[in-house]
Amino acid sequence: MARNIGNLIPIFDKLKHSEVGSIIEYAVQELKVENILVIGHSRCGGVKRLMSHPEDGSATFDFIDNWVNIAQAAKIKVKTQHSDLTFEEQCEICAEEAVNVSLKNLHSYPFVKSGVDEKKIALRGGYYNFVDGSFKLWDLE
């Protein structure tokens, strides 16, 4: 199990974010996991930071802002498709969309992609709403 701000998985890169890559590599190559589940949650501080990050690119936090920008595509999608919603509602939707970004990014890891292609690994997304106790589970289409 890996836990980080925003529950994010970056695109495969041997030089950047190697701690996440090493966790995934160990789970897939050594432990031979059959399922990888990425779970977002309600009231996520990482997603809130992503959604409130200034559009001009100015950064308050060096490490946090760089990290949460992994899910920039989720933010853009939510801001475009749900501009009529409140900031809090957008954050909740973005938490789920960030899971989808991470699931897509998992496909960039060669050992994950081959496991998925060979049907040895299943990738699933989840969202836990700890306010009402609900849990959603899905496969990325």
Descriptive account of the structure:
The protein is of the alpha+beta class and 141 residues long. The protein has a single domain (18-139), classed as Beta-carbonic Anhydrase, Chain A (3-Layer(aba) Sandwich), CATH 3.40.1050. Helices cover 47% and strands 15% of the residues. The chain contains six helices and three strands, in the order H-E-H-H-H-H-H-E-E. A hairpin with a 4-residue loop joins strand 2 and strand 3. 29% of the residues are buried.
Notable traits:
single chain, 141 residues, alpha+beta, Beta-carbonic Anhydrase, Chain A, three-stranded mixed β-sheet, metal-binding, zinc, EC 4.2.1.1
Give the helix/strand layout.
Layout: H1 18-30, E1 35-41, H2 45-52, H3 62-68, H4 72-81, H5 87-106, H6 110-117, E2 122-129, E3 134-139
Helix pairs in contact: 4-5
Q: Write the CATH fold name.
A: Beta-carbonic Anhydrase, Chain A
Oligomerization status of the protein chains: single chain
The separation of the N and C termini measures 24 Å
Tally of DSSP helical segments: 6
Low-confidence regions = none
EC number: 4.2.1.1
InterPro entries: Carbonic_anhydrase, Carbonic_anhydrase_CS, Carbonic_anhydrase_sf
Protein name: Carbonic anhydrase
Keywords: Lyase, Metal-binding, Zinc
Would you summarize the structure shown here?
Helix content is 47%, strand content 15%. With 141 residues, it is of the alpha+beta class. It is globular and about 45 Å long.
